[in-house]
Amino acid sequence: FLSAEECAGLRALIDADAKPSTLFSGSANADYRTSHSCNLNPWEELVMGISDRICAMTGLPARHGETLQGQRYAPGQEYKVHCDYFPVTASYWPQMRTSGGQRTWTAMIYLSPVEAGGETHFPQCEFMVPPVEGMILIWNNMDRDGAPNRKSLHAARPVESGTKYVVTKWFRERPWG
């Protein structure tokens, strides 16, 4: 989906702004999510072009897409099993409901090869996807009835050797913002 040059450009943007990742609830948990991440500037030419390509490929409306987020995982870092949809019992759900609603789709692009580890694991489906530079992985966070898709639970497995970079774009059920 992306060229080696585009991947390198996004890695540089991530390196320039990445901070220790937090959980969506705003809490930091050193054991659960140990990566570094940042929201990329949506007006940066490279970021805008890639966001547009994701929207064109998926057919999802750009106004429903969140800002592209970059993530970097060093050896030993991971993000344990989690969902991208919002649990409706979470304290932040009322705010999310009014700012675009549920996260319906996830599009994630691997930006680097990883020497060992770093797979995206979908435990409910019993498969793992190894990082391949430039490859996009897309999944639906909702089932056919519009309820959270439990099979979309996933984890970023620990990197064993090398550094893993990804960018993620989430889409909401209504315009985001």
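Above is the first protein from milestone M3; the second protein from the same milestone is given next.
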Amino acid sequence: MEKQEDKSLKFVIQHYKFSKLDSNAAYHRLAMRIGIQKHSYKLWWAAAASFLLLLSFAGIYNYLNQTTTLYATASTTTYTLADGTKVTLSPQSSLSYKDTNCRDVEITGKVYLDIFHNPNKPFTISDDSYRINDIGTRLEVDETAKSTTVYVDQGAVSFASTSDISHALVLNQGCKAILRKSGIHPERIETKSANCVSWATHKFRFRDTPLREVLADLSDYYKVSFVSDNYNVNLTADFRADNLNTIVNVIQKSLDVKIKYKAE
């Protein structure tokens, strides 16, 4: 009996015709039947390849130019950047940077920065009107529609207008300056209290400070008012803003005064 494999081979040899099983020929016969021209087919694939390439470039561009933005909404919020810098945002403030470069930032509102110093990669805060360069710093930047104010809590910064970047103002610890939107150079201004950044640090530092100023600082932070039976005394002390009653009791005992909360 003839084997099944031999029968199949014999059938193929008898019925085989050249090009009958040619897939390219089959495609072209189908293309002619439905009206697709050979050159149109090539153009279609070329257009599709170009479109996919364009999408790839767009994706890479968007990835390399993405912006990271940190926000604070109703309450003070603290973030730690990838380089170790700690950023405290007051309510309704923000900080942003492009790509992964968190050493070059923009801000809105009031922001306190405890910058991780890297001499090989300076930290920069800037926008269209000003530029601040870190020189190993803790500082507060308060940006409004009318001005930008800088207070240096520790270290030093270089503060300049973008219209005259070569004439930067160097601010050391305890110094404060303002750049008005219409101004060309930052101007030094008086620092009323070293505790102007207590909202971010949650610390108070008093050095032979008149009691009236001490109570004003506490009032600003805790949003309450005080009265005392004697304001003619000065205080030298450091406090953490953990418990207001504890702070008031320590002041009363240290200065031998009486302090009461004042009704608004």
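Note on the second protein: The radius of gyration is 36 Å.
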